[in-house]
């Protein structure tokens, strides 16, 4: 078993992160396997080195240890570019310069039906989707969307399923078209996306088991499709419950009231954190 914790260094780790990190760490240790970290810092506008340093400090304080060196996504751009080239050569990507506002406007036009929300927000209405497969070199500096219908044609009747909490789940091809749609696989200012990077890196790090929050459960169908397109292995998945505050609201990075560092400064011990998240 090889597990990972993959935080984005955009704010303090809170109780929800502690839960996820401890779960992955302890499962690896219990099975005699390994636990790795990955710093998901592709959003250069939000990632900060001081948050990365704070992540290591919090995890060490919690008593976790991990394999070195730590993978940092900002060092992995060549690997993402290679994956994008492969997808581009398959003819399943197209460039798109629509802004979020354009998409909302297109969706609220009278002839459109009601707006469907997918894992990345409103399902893209297809404004930039070309009638024929784009040719020439892969464009950069623009968003690239996955042409969902073409991607499904490309994989034909290959199996599209994954293991969730020990059970095999079939990914619905209809749901991919209707409820996920043409998601961005490269974002304009990033030249990659969460979906692409997580799939490429889980494979590169040899992750066998992904345990992450239920908020990412819906994204898994996209990840499994990318794994099939790119011939990468699928890890087993568990999407765990989210830690909520007393009002039932899920914790966010900006809630530093539940930051691990805050508990530490208040004199709590790592064991108290484990107890707070029922581990
Ligand atoms: N970087 C993501 C986050 O902090 C986690 C990604 C994952 O576990 O797949 O929410």
From TrEMBL:
GO molecular function annotations of the record: ATP binding; glutamate-tRNA ligase activity
Stretch list, region Disordered: 117-139
Keywords: Aminoacyl-tRNA synthetase, ATP-binding, Ligase, Metal-binding, Nucleotide-binding, Protein biosynthesis, Zinc
InterPro entries given in the database record: aa-tRNA-synth_I_CS (IPR001412), Glu/Gln-tRNA-synth (IPR000924), Glu/Gln-tRNA-synth_Ib_cat-dom (IPR020058), GluQ/Sye (IPR049940), Rossmann-like_a/b/a_fold (IPR014729)
Entry's Gene Ontology BP terms: glutamyl-tRNA aminoacylation
Biased composition (Low complexity): 125-139
Any one GO cellular component localisation term in the record: cytosol
Keyword Calcium attributed: no
Domain Glutamyl/glutaminyl-tRNA synthetase class Ib catalytic as annotated: residue spans: 2-103, 179-272
UniProt family annotation: Belongs to the class-I aminoacyl-tRNA synthetase family.
Protein name listed in UniProt: Glutamyl-Q tRNA synthetase
């Amino acid at each position: 078993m090889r597990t990972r914790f993959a935080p984005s260094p955009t704010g303090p780790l809170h109780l929800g992160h502690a839960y996820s990190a401890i779960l992955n760490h302890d499962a690896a240790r219990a099975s005699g396997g390994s636990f790795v970290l990955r710093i998901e810092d592709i959003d250069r506008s939000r990632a900060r080195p001081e948050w990365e340093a704070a992540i290591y400090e919090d995890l060490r304080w919690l008593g976790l240890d991990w394999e070195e060196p730590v993978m940092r996504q900002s060092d992995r751009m060549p690997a993402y570019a290679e994956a994008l080239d492969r997808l581009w050569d398959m003819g399943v990507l197209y460039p798109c310069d629509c802004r979020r506002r354009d998409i909302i406007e297109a969706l609220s036009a009278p002839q459109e039906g009601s707006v469907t929300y997918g894992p990345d927000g409103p399902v893209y209405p297809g404004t930039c989707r070309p009638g024929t497969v784009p040719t020439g070199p892969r464009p950069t500096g623009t968003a690239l969307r996955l042409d969902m219908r073409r991607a499904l044609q490309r994989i034909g009747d290959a199996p599209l399923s994954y293991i969730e909490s020990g059970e095999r789940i079939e990914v619905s091809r209809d749901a991919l078209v209707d409820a996920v749609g043409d998601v961005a696989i490269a974002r304009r200012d990033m030249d990659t996306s969460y979906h692409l990077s997580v799939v490429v890196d889980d494979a590169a790090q040899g992750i066998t088991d992904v345990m992450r929050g239920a908020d990412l459960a819906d994204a898994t169908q996209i990840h499994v499709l990318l794994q099939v397109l790119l011939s990468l292995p699928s890890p087993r998945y568990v999407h765990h419950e989210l830690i909520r505050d007393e009002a039932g609201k899920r914790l966010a990075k900006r809630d530093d009231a539940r930051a691990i560092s805050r508990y530490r400064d208040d004199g709590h011990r790592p064991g108290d954190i484990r107890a707070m998240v029922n581990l």
